Amino acid sequence: MRLSSIEIAKRMAGAGALALAAFAAVPAFAQEAAETAAEAAAPVMDKGDVAWMMTSTLLVLFMTLPGLALFYGGLVRAKNALSVLMQCTMIAAVVMVVWVLWGYSFAFGGGTSPFWGGFGKLFLSGVTMDSTAATFTDGVVIPEYVFICFQMTFAVITPALIVGAFAERIKFSAVVLFTVLWVTFVYFPVAHMVWDGSGYLFNLGALDFAGGTVVHINAGIAALVGCMIVGKRSGYGKDILAPHSMTLTMVGGSILWVGWFGFNAGSNLEATGGAALAMINTFTATAGAIIGWSVIEALHRGKASMLGAVSGLVAGLVAVTPACGSVGPVGAIVLGAIASAVCYFFVAVVKNKFGYDDTLDVFGIHGVGGIVGALGTGIFTAPWLGGTGADDFSIASQLWVQFVAVLVTVAWCGVVSAILYKLVDAIVGLRPEKEAETQGLDLTSHGEAAYHYS
């Protein structure tokens, strides 16, 4: 069929229009593709993760107040019970303020130094409701405020642990001043070295899932140095200095165990299988440690005590802290039992042999247990021992890295802590008068008593 010139012109015009429409659609398709790619690359925030991390943060705070306060409060004599509770309470408040003003920046300020985080986030500069913090899964984030609060509770409990070493014989003003200085020059740098992406020990490959070096070795070494510099309690080795309430200590220890699930499982930063692994290990390691300590004590002293059981409880929790995210549940049982045995030896034998007065065995349990846990992580992470290590995991190589991390923490904390104790002693003094110690710090330091007997 022959087309007229008009019909040909109409069809050509229609084809041109279709071509133009097709070309016009190209930018639109490209824009849609770009938007899809951007959506795919955008960080993901899961409400379940956020809720879990907020809960974990409260659990870690619960460890300090009232957990640690009651645990320590029951272990001292009645005349000093409130002084320990007050020290834990004030340390929590002071460290929270310090953390917001400069602590978070010094630990996680975004700097590239391997030893500290810099000034980039002083006073939480640049942090908003919309800013986020990374997790262990690429592209998954949580609100930065939640991460700040979670890490803050770790900074709170660490110096609170230290005061148990020189309980019943320390000035309240000395505790406050030392806490501010110690978190600034010891805790924040070590936290940066171990947990920040630019940290020295982090890049060395050290494994510390929830704070074996940062919290427990740090606190334990500072405690040992402190009890030696402050000196022994009046009447140590002569008078009866027994705990006034094992009931309070058991309650406080139980609260610590419950709160520790936030400490360990929360360190996964997500509500995933990693948190579940840390959770079950926090059960099994502690159980193994309680049994281990009680058996050893029964064989050594003829009876298994409540004080021994709760000491084993804490020793197991301490040891599994660095390992909970990378060892298997059975390996955790063994690790907890080993930690109990080593800690028992230091508490029952080494302390008496060398004569230092670590009042509440902070070094013997947290320091020694933290070292056992850190080194044990390098062993029990091996896949053939039930751990999560890769097929090419080398116990020897990882154990060396763990040893270096322990050595760096011990050296830095030991030297700087000694300097800070001497500085505090020169400024406000470390010990109260002997008469004040004899009367009890509750009345002489705080003007009140824990108990009123009719």
From TrEMBL:
Residues annotated as signal peptide: 1-30
Keyword Phosphoprotein belongs to the record: no
Gene3D superfamilies: Ammonium transporter AmtB like domains
Membrane topology listed for this record: Multi-pass membrane protein
GO cellular component terms, semicolon-separated: plasma membrane
Annotated keywords: Ammonia transport, Cell membrane, Membrane, Signal, Transmembrane, Transmembrane helix, Transport
Record localization: Cell membrane
Domain Ammonium transporter AmtB-like residue range list: 51-451
Membrane-spanning residues: 50-72, 84-104, 145-167, 174-195, 207-229, 241-263, 275-296, 305-323, 329-350, 362-387, 399-421
Single GO molecular function: ammonium channel activity
Family: Belongs to the ammonia transporter channel (TC 1.A.11.2) family.
Protein name, as recorded: Ammonium transporter
